[in-house]
Description:
single chain, 2 domains, five-stranded mixed β-sheet, three-stranded antiparallel β-sheet
Amino acid sequence: xxxxxxxxxxxxxxxxxxxxxxxxxxxxxxxxxxxxxxxxxxxxxxxxxxxxxxxxxxxxxxxxxxxxxxxxxxxxxxxxxxxxxxxxxxxxxxxxxxxxxxxxxxxxxxxxxxxxxxxxxxxxxxxxxxxxxxxxxxxxxxxxxxxxxxxxxxxxxxxxxxxxxxxxxxxxxxxxxxxxxxxxxxxxxxxxxxxxxxxxxxxxxxxxxxxxxxxxxxxxxxxxxxxxxxxxxxxxxxxxxxxxxxxxxxxxxxxxxxxxxxxxxxxxxxxxxxxxxxxxxxxxxxxxxxxxxxxxxxxxxxxxxxxx
Length: 308
């Protein structure tokens, strides 16, 4: 508990320009350790916030999976047969033929997604890739391609990439769905495991990457700070300024962390500006050599000898 209290005190002191002078004589290893554990502490807080947000989201995941099971089972229409042979698709139904699962129509009715196409899958072996926009569908199956849209760009995949001829009907699809659904039902458990492992590792792994990043960026920032300190008449070495900078990044890191929790906020150059403004204030608090150095000793003046 005392260690935590001292560490929190160090964070507070790192936000005060008046506390930096003693760091000039302290080992750099202490400053390196402080920066790493500061990042671990903030990473832990972020992980806890994420965990708090995940708990209600998990209920939604379970509900979605429960709704998905019947939607998966009824997805493939009875009587439809798709034959993939020699890179070409043929069907046994009148075309164009649409497949609109219940879940798709429900989402459209609820307005879950803006600009949602009317149909989920449309099959027309007489269509071409360029006809995609005509069908108002999420997926278009032509004779030779499956076509979809990704970020307003068409994506087409040729059936010639299928290595073997394939006949897909309701019976084949049901066998596939029956094998897949048990794994889908276990998905929340696997998500829980992934989240727990991620929450345990995130503070340390994330802190490690961030620590290396700040060590590298401080090499450049300290070079600029070195020039500024020279203009201010502070005869500090590069290593001394780097050591001070390891504490001086506290405010920029706190700013980035707090702003990161607010969507749509944050400006890239603000942390850099905070660092240099803060460090200039710190340098002003450190006495210049003329003010701090030892005063020259006056030569003793010998008293004149008295005449006998």
